[in-house]
Amino acid sequence: MKNKKVLWALLAVIVIAAAYILIAKPFTPKGDGSITVTVTDVEQKVLKEKKIVFNSGDKLTDLVKNNFDNVLIDNGMLMNIESLVTPADWSQFISILINGEMAMEGIETLPYKDGDKLEFRMTVYDPNFGK
Amino acid sequence: MAGKGSKKPFLTARELCIMALLTVILFTQEQLMNFLPNMNFTILLMLLYAKTLGFAKSTMIITVYLFFDAVYMGSLNPIWTTGQWVAWMVIPLLTCTMFKHTEDSLKLAFAGALFAFLYCWIMIVPTMWVLKTPFIAYLISDIGFELLLAASSFLGILLLYEPLSKLLRKLLKTEMQ
C-alpha cells in the first residue's frame, strides 16, 4: 500500500514538472507575421513594447487598438496611446517611426510587413522644422 | 456544564476560535504559496475541514476565507466571487455526500484532483463573463494551470491528509473532554 502511494506521489511530481514546462513555454499564436510596436515618451523612454502577430488584411489601427490601452485616433491621426496624450495646443504630438525612419503616411494607411518595428513617439513640435 | 438532556450548541466559543484559526491557515497558506502558480493546499484544507467539521461549518470557513481572499486580492466582484464560491462549495458538498465514508488518502487524493478540475471548469463561466475571454483560447491556455492545481492537490492530500486529519480530530476531541 505504501509503495502504491509512493508511485502515485512520484507520478504527481512528474505531472507538476510537465505542467510547469507547459505553462513556462510562451504560447505564440500563429499568424502571417509579426511586428514590434513600441510606445516611447518625449525623452524616448520606452513605456510599452509589444510583439503583435497579424494576419494578412489586418488593419494597423485595429492591431494597435486591440493591443494598447487608451488609443484615440481622430481624423486619421493618433492622438492618444497608453499614457501619451496630445495636448490641446499641439506643442507635442505622437509621431510614427517605422524601422527607425519617420513614417510618410498616417496610422490608417501606413503599410507594414513581417518584422517591421513601429514606434509611437511623443515629439515636441518644432515651428522651425524644415526651414 | 450543560444539564442532562440539554442540547449541545451548534457552535461553542472554542469551536468558533478553532474555525477562525483554520480560516487564517487557509488564507495564509494560499498567500504564502502565491509565488507558485496554482500550487497550494487550498483543496487539501477544504477537504480536511469538510471531513472533520462537516458541511455547515466548512461552508462558514470557506465563505469567510473567500471574502477576505477576494478583498485582499482585489477580485471582489458579484459575478466572479459568486462563481468562485460555487466552485469552492463543490468540495464540501461532494466530500459530505459522495465521499462521506471514504477515509483512504489515495481515493481522497483522486477526489482532490477531481475538485481541482471542477473548480477550474466552473470558473470558466465567470471568467468569460467578466473578462470577455474567448472560450477555446481560455480552455487551452488553462490546461497547464488545471494540471498544476490537480497534481499539487493530489500530492498534498496523498501525503498530508492522514496526519492532518489525526491532528485536527485530536484537537477537536480535546474540547469534548
List the topology elements.
The complex is a heterodimer of chains A (131) and B (177).
Chain A: H1 2-24, E1 33-40, E2 46-54, H2 60-67, E3 72-74, E4 77-81, E5 84-85, E6 92-98, E7 101-102, E8 117-124
Chain B: H1 13-32, H2 42-53, H3 55-73, H4 78-95, H5 105-122, H6 124-131, H7 135-176
Helix pairs in contact in B: 1-2, 1-3, 2-3, 2-4, 2-7, 3-4, 4-5, 4-6, 5-7
Write up this protein.
- The complex is a heterodimer of chains A (131) and B (177).
- Chain A has a single domain, classed as Ferric Hydroxamate Uptake Protein, Chain A, domain 1.
- Chain A contains 2 helices and 8 strands; from the N terminus they run H-E-E-H-E-E-E-E-E-E.
- The radius of gyration of chain A is 22 Å and the shape is elongated.
- The model of chain A has no long low-confidence stretch (mean pLDDT 89).
- Chain B has 177 residues and is mostly helical.
- Chain B has a single domain, classed as Arp2/3 complex 21 kDa subunit ARPC3 (Orthogonal Bundle).
- The interface between A and B is medium-sized, with 14 and 18 residues.
Keywords:
heterodimer, A: about 130 residues, alpha+beta, Ferric Hydroxamate Uptake Protein, Chain A, domain 1, 5-stranded mixed sheet, 3-stranded antiparallel sheet, 2 helices, 8 strands, about 25% helix, B: about 180 residues, mainly alpha, Arp2/3 complex 21 kDa subunit ARPC3, about 75% helix
